[in-house]
UniProtKB/TrEMBL annotation:
Domain Acyl-coenzyme A oxidase N-terminal: 21-87
Pfam families per the UniProt record, alphabetical: Acyl-CoA_ox_N
InterPro entries: Acyl-CoA_ox_N, AcylCoA_DH/ox_N_sf
Name of the protein described by the UniProt record: Acyl-coenzyme A oxidase N-terminal domain-containing protein
C-alpha cells in the first residue's frame, strides 16, 4: 500500500467489529513473535528502498518505458534480495 494512503472506511468499520484479539491472531498466523519481528523487518527493508519506487507513475508511461522500468526494478529487487539474504542468512523458511 502506498505510504500516506487512507484505508477504506468500510474496511475500517469491518475490522472494528472483529471479536478476537487481532495481535494474538497475527502472532498465531505468523508463527510467533520472533517470526513476526523478522517478517516486519523484511517488510520494512523492502518498503524503504527508493530503487523499488516508480520514477514516473506507470499509467503515464509508454510501453517501452513500462518495460524499462520493470527491468530496472527487477534488477534492483534481485540485488537487494541478495543483500538481505547475506544479512539474515539464507533460510527457505524466511519467505513463508
Amino acid at each position: 500500500m502506498p505510504s500516506g494512503s487512507a484505508v477504506n472506511k468500510d474496511l475500517l468499520d469491518e475490522r472494528s467489529k472483529c471479536t478476537f484479539d487481532k495481535d494474538e491472531f497475527t502472532l498465531w498466523w505468523v508463527g510467533g513473535k520472533e517470526k513476526l519481528d523478522a517478517k516486519r523487518d523484511r517488510e520494512h527493508f523492502c518498503m524503504n528502498q527508493p530503487e523499488f519506487r516508480d520514477s514516473v507513475p506507470l499509467h503515464f508511461a509508454s510501453h517501452q518505458e513500462v518495460y524499462e522500468e520493470t527491468i530496472r526494478k527487477a534488477t534492483a529487487i534481485f540485488s537487494k534480495t541478495r543483500e538481505l539474504l547475506k544479512k539474515q542468512g539464507y533460510d527457505a523458511n524466511n519467505f513463508v
